[in-house]
Prior knowledge:
Helix content is 37%, strand content 24%. The chain has helices at 31-36, 47-54, 63-69, 74-79, 115-149, 200-219; strands at 8-15, 20-24, 39-41, 58-60, 84-92, 95-104, 177-183, 189-195. The chain has a six-stranded antiparallel beta sheet, sandwiched between helices. The protein has a two-stranded antiparallel ribbon with strand order 7-8. Strand 5 and strand 6 (95-104) form a beta hairpin. The N and C termini lie far apart (65 Å).
Amino acid sequence: PQAIDADFVTLALRDDRDETLVFIHPASLSPELAARYTRLPLDTPAPLTDAVRNGEMVIVRDNEENRLRYPELVDDAVEAGLASVAAAPLVIEDEVVGAIGFGWARPLREEDSMESRLVVVSELTAQTLQRTRTADARARLIDELRQHLVPTQPDQPTLEIAVRYQAAGRSIGFGGDWYDVIPLDDGRTAVIVGDVVGHGISAAARMAVLKTVLSTVVRM
Length: 220
């Protein structure tokens, strides 16, 4: 907010499952107002929803303009101490994924020239959001891989088994080293401990192939 001297900033992310905007409000917003604006249908007239639907910036320079354009929202804006508001779409790879909203306790004048600064802030916000989504997707992928590659402790009624896996590297939480405990016929159990040279995803991929081959051979 300091880059554009705003008194209020909020974030709204698009939920395509039910065509709504989900809001992330600052702690300074009153609980009553925050509760009313937790989620809005995209077809609700509002600066943030309009910015998302149309992919264009919305600037409302004073309460009089706000009353004309968004009569159902102006009282809430006044309650929040805002005399002017703006919303800019957040675009990632040509897709509008949400919008960032700003508010000022003073009316905006024509000579304030907020548009260019709002564009810069919205682009930086979208880039940050994209990096966050990429990191989240990578974390989910790594977690799924780990669940498949690092076995759970098998239930062997005739054998007490205790295992602990701690990868040397911290980048993905596992690598080329592995263990496997395989129940066999006649109450026998095969225990395999191995290590593939290397680190990270490449070593984990080679380990997965070798682990599968060995497990198949042992069961033959």
